[in-house]
Amino acid sequence: MLRRLSDALQVAPYQPAEWMTALRMVAQATNSTHGEMVCWTKPKKTPLRLISNLSDEQAKLIQDWEIQVGADPSINPIVAAGISAPVLQTVTDDEVIRHDERSRHVVWNEYYHKLDIYHMCFSPLWRSSDSIVGLFLLRSFRDGAVSGDERRLFGSIASKWRDAALTAQSFKTDGARILAGALEGISIHAIILDGFGRCVHVSPVAESLLSGDDALTVRMDRLRRSDSSQAVADCQCAGRLIAIDADLQPCIDCVTRLVGPGGSDCRSCSIVVKGPSGISAQLRISSIPRDRHEISFGAAAIVVIDPPVVPSSIELLTDVASALTKAEREVALEMLDGRRPAEIAVRRSVSVETIRSQIKRIYAKLEVSGLVEFMAKAKR
């Protein structure tokens, strides 16, 4: 059994479905009902949770729990203990909460006991400033508490599991670097995000754009906007334009989360950020298809940065301007600056359909058949 488990861990970084195979084996080797690998991130999110041997009813209960509570350490003492415990330290439930407290605790009453989980053992495998990956044994009332021998066996398995997780991290980081380099080669300036929403690689030109921008920056591996900037997102989930009051992270998280139960079905998002100098940049965030068993280190989304647009001094010809309404003149100037309908829509806080209708009216009034004729006829 242990030899087959070791083989599965060697393959799992490259074939993510093998993580589930390994979880079933670790549960069997330690006489436990379930094996679990979980990723927690701030604030109170769980981008990955893999649990072996779950029934459909148990899986539904876990999904509901994630929506209601998530990884909130103020509610779940297991999360709090996992955050504070040293890497590879083995911790049991008896060390986290006393038996006489469990009957009064919402996590045990509304979650663990309904799942027939009465005992557990866990070890943090890897952590950063805002995320952690852990390995768990989950045991039913019938399994009983974790014995000393089972705890020692779990500790040795956790060490090998950590090595496999770090291999997965290295493999996925290298893949993100190669992807960003390939995009740079075709003049696409990109940032690669992992499943935690962190910037795992920034292409050289994208980095130079950020360094010279007064609206965007990367701080603590996160793409941020300055306090003095303004941002509007064309949100696929909301189905409308939304103003971003503070951080870009909610929009980024929406795209980087896995599609499926408890995940997002948002595949893309367009954000326009305008700095205090009036210069604006457009970010186009698109998700990258990936296996639902993957640890969230891998490339999960691409952020393409269009170079900042400097306010233009272009003017419309007098006879062209007089033929258009005020709104149409403003859209026409945006078109002369080279902006696409979607970007114009975000900048003007209207729908793309509205912009396209205005463009059709502009073409009709100027008696042109398309963008090339419009550019030739309209610009002074």
UniProtKB/TrEMBL annotation:
Using the record's annotation, list all stretches that form the HTH luxR-type domain. Answer: 317-380
Please give the superkingdom of this protein's source: Bacteria
* Biological processes annotated in GO: regulation of DNA-templated transcription
Q: Which GO terms describe its molecular function?
A: DNA binding
Please state what the protein is called.
Transcriptional regulator, LuxR family
Q: Which organism is it from?
A: Rhodopseudomonas palustris (strain BisA53)
